[in-house]
């Protein structure tokens, strides 16, 4: 079973949300419903989009430039990041994600909820996203490495031969549970960075970072077992940093045996709860959908699957794309959970 932090969050939020986003959504399916669910799953509001532009810019342009030892003018790079944001906007506005060969890994790939879900918006909000992106890139060279006077940028330049951005194919498996988190940047050895552009004071990313710590720990353990470059495994050697590019801050997340065991427990218990509902051969259908209980309450009004969930519930899973699209343009969506 594949387990991810975001699937787990969906599962806690609402079982039906988990169904729509993790069982139904499929990028390569020929079934129009499964494809639509995939686009909805990937759709972003403006806050998420700002983070997405910054993530993509750092992994595809800035880190490779540092790796190549290029002289970086951050004013020019900030302008370039905004240009990429504009390309992403056009990509989404023209709904190229429906037909293009580009995938989530491409720098221009973008699905905005204003286009996919027809959300109303004010033009000024787009300008605010570009301003946030610009600020994030301009802040980059000002951030100091944790508890030192060395800038983060200088630290990355000093480790330029080891930088590995956007890792998605490294993880671990325990008891048939596969965990492959997205890792923003591996600096060197067991030092990892996660980029954030959230302005929230209450966001807590400690569990998300700890999962990356587990990947480092499990991989070292595996290499020791296979005799490949054996070294002592020590939780203290794993450094997990959250860099907030809007606040200009860097925070180190603790990682020790206790934290690691708590995260293992969380993964085991959550996977067990999911597997109690989800069968290996689950076929997305009405019968399957109703096994996943829907959540009543205010969560629905904020849910990106609201319209699709309503449509499938009311139509007993007989997806009618024209009717679904119409529901997106109606001022008031149908009443959910009749
Ligand atoms: S709209 Fe409500 S019930 Fe449906 S998936 Fe979202 S949170 Fe769950």
Automatic annotation (TrEMBL):
Superkingdom of the source species: Bacteria
UniProt entry keywords in alphabetical sequence: Plasmid
Stated name of the protein: PD-(D/E)XK endonuclease-like domain-containing protein
């Amino acid at each position: 079973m594949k387990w991810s932090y975001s699937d787990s969050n969906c599962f806690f939020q609402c079982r039906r949300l988990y169904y729509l986003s993790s069982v139904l959504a499929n990028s390569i399916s020929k079934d129009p419903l499964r494809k639509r669910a995939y686009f909805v799953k990937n759709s972003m509001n403006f806050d998420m989009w700002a983070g997405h532009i910054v993530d993509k810019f750092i992994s595809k342009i800035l880190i490779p430039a540092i790796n190549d030892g290029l002289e970086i003018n951050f004013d020019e790079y900030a302008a370039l990041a905004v240009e990429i944001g504009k390309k992403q906007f056009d990509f989404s506005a023209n709904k190229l994600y429906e037909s293009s060969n580009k995938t989530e890994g491409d720098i221009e790939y973008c699905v905005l909820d204003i286009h996919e879900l027809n959300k109303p918006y004010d033009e000024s909000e787009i300008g605010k996203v570009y301003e946030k992106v610009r600020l994030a890139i301009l802040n980059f060279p000002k951030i100091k490495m944790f508890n030192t006077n060395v800038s983060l940028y200088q630290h990355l330049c000093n480790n330029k031969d080891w930088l590995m951005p956007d890792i998605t194919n490294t993880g671990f498996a325990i008891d048939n549970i596969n965990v492959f988190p997205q890792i923003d940047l591996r600096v060197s050895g067991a030092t990892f960075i996660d980029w954030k552009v959230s302005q929230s004071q209450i966001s807590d990313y400690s569990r998300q970072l700890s999962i990356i710590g587990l990947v480092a720990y499990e991989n070292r353990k595996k290499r020791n077992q296979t005799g490949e470059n054996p070294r002592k495994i020590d939780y203290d050697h794993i450094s997990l940093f959250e860099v907030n590019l809007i606040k200009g801050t860097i925070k180190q997340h603790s990682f020790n045996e206790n934290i690691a065991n708590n995260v293992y427990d969380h993964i085991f218990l959550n996977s067990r709860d999911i597997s109690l509902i989800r069968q290996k051969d689950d076929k997305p259908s009405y019968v399957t959908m109703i096994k996943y209980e829907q959540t009543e309450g205010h969560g629905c009004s904020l849910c990106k699957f609201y319209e699709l969930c309503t449509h499938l519930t009311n139509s007993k899973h007989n997806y009618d794309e024209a009717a679904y699209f119409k529901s997106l343009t109606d001022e008031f969506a149908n009443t959910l959970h009749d």
